[in-house]
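Dear colleagues,

As part of the handover before I leave the project, I'm documenting each prediction I ran so the next person doesn't have to rerun anything. This entry is a single chain, and its sequence is reproduced below.
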Amino acid sequence: MIAVVIIASAGLVLAVGAIFLSLDHLAISSDRASGSKALALADGCLRLGLRHLELDDNYRGENLSLGAESCIIKVTGERMEKTVLASAVSGNYSRAVEAEVVIASGVISVRHYRLPDGY
């Protein structure tokens, strides 16, 4: 009888451990998805900023809200050489992308595209 109780207890401990492991895995997967979503949103906002800059070389950026997510587009620099920074927030994650561009005859050429430090 004691052996049955010990085996049942061990089985219960293993089952509870498996449940907690599954919950941890689910939380990690959710966090990874939110981080990826924030990066994709930042990239999309950067592309939107580049398009606005192509249409109007005086464009300086904007703040956008997309449901629970948001992004900020900032454009700095001189007339021909500019830096476009897009930072986005999704859930508890924020990500940013940055492009250094040259504008010549209304055509934008991207010199550098990177993930800035601190994001």
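The beta strands are 61-66, 69-77, 81-90, 93-104, 107-114. The chain is about 45% helix and 40% strand.

All the best with the project,
I.
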